[in-house]
Specification:
Strand order of the largest sheet: 5-4-3-10
Strand content: 5-15%
Largest sheet: 4 strands, antiparallel
Radius of gyration: 22 Å
Distance between the termini: 25 Å
Order of helices and strands: EEHHHHHHHEEHHEHEEHHEEEH
Number of domains: 3
Number of strands: 10
Helix content: 25-40%
């Protein structure tokens, strides 16, 4: 782990890392969740809740019946335990964090995986990205990695595509540094001042690690360091799970290209590429939402399906109609045209 990654501690250091580079569950990692305010007992907690907490703290992998959860007096506490236990049980069903993550989108033995709350899916992605980038000192790659588990707000300013962390932007907009006075002003109907965050650039990159978590803006404009860094992170993400090399290049537009295979990196991008594939026109709204196109090629063409060897995979990234971006890293893993025998697979 490197201090170059200014992300909050998620328990990554409590996981075990195997010789294969994948993360493995530990009792210490599970027990750490029990100290969170959603699960830690409070003064009003009933005896059954306190006993459950103590039992799990001493043996985090022990089974917990639905009947035992029904004994909890506080229904919110019971719901919190159900969510945690569903996440825990899913992790316990797989040998690594990576395989558990991938199984959420593939299922296993033809069956769909147990539903896991979105907050835990984002946590898994963050843990895996921290593992992938553990030796990375490039602030642009670290910031680009946040797109895999943090929703972004998109601003187009003088042609530049700027991504700010949605949670940070909304929190600062609700309380723009004025505390109770700021909230009082907003409640009176006075428009709050715009939120200004620092855009990551080569001049301030050295200070990235010292900034509050998720507070720097990524410039995803064509030709800028942020877009290049995102390509490198996507390549590393694929290599980590599948053990194969790819080369991803940003494109300004598709010119006379046949979409033999394509991957949307978010819901809006998938809709746009589906429309193009079917011969539909790109609407003004779709064009306005498009942030970037990409071309992916396999370093070893034999890793692609036979009928697609030598042909690029086209990808797109879009913002939605609320100027939000939610990158779906799983699409890079389950939607590529991989030959059956290609590389290693984190599920195996």
């Amino acid at each position: 782990m490197t201090d170059a990654i200014p992300w909050p501690d998620t328990g990554h250091g409590l996981l075990e890392k195997g010789a294969d580079g994948y993360l493995r569950l530990s009792d210490a990692f599970l027990a750490r969740f029990l100290e969170r305010p959603e699960l830690a007992p409070i003064d009003e907690s009933c005896a059954e809740e306190r006993a459950l907490h103590a039992d799990l703290h001493s043996a985090p992998r022990q089974p917990v019946s639905a009947g035992r959860l029904q004994l909890l007096r506080d229904p919110d506490a019971a719901d919190n335990y159900r969510a945690f236990l569903a996440f825990r049980d899913h992790l316990l069903a797989y040998p690594t964090i990576e395989s558990a993550y991938l199984a959420l989108f593939r299922g296993r033995d033809g069956q769909k995986a147990v539903a896991v709350a979105p907050v835990f899916i984002d946590l898994m992605a963050q843990l895996i990205l921290r593992n992938i980038l553990c030796d990375c000192t490039d602030p642009f790659m670290i910031r680009a990695g946040e797109l895999f588990f943090r929703e972004q707000m998109v601003t187009i300013r003088e042609g530049a595509i700027l991504l700010g962390d949605r949670e940070v932007v909304e929190r600062l907009a609700a309380d723009p540094g004025l505390g109770n006075l700021g909230r009082l002003i907003q409640q009176s109907g006075v428009r709050a001042r715009p939120v200004e965050l620092t855009v990551l650039n080569p001049e301030n990159a050295a200070a990235f690690a010292g900034q509050p978590a998720f507070h720097m803006v990524l410039d995803l404009s064509h030709g800028r360091e942020g877009l290049t860094a995102l390509c490198r992170v996507m390549e590393a993400w694929i290599a980590h799970f599948h053990g194969i090399g790819t080369s991803i290049t940003p494109l300004r537009e598709l010119i006379d290209q046949t979409l033999d295979w394509y991957v949307g990196l978010d819901y809006a991008a998938t809709a746009l590429l589906n429309n193009l594939y079917r011969g539909g026109a790109v609407t003004p709204a779709m064009r306005e939402g498009l942030l970037s196109l990409f071309s992916l090629t396999f370093d070893d063409r034999r890793n692609a399906l036979a009928q697609l060897q030598g042909r690029p995979v086209f990808m797109a990234l879009c913002k939605d109609d609320r100027n939000r971006l939610r990158l779906k890293g799983q699409n890079l893993l389950v939607n590529l045209p991989l030959a059956h025998e290609a590389g290693r697979d984190a599920v195996n």
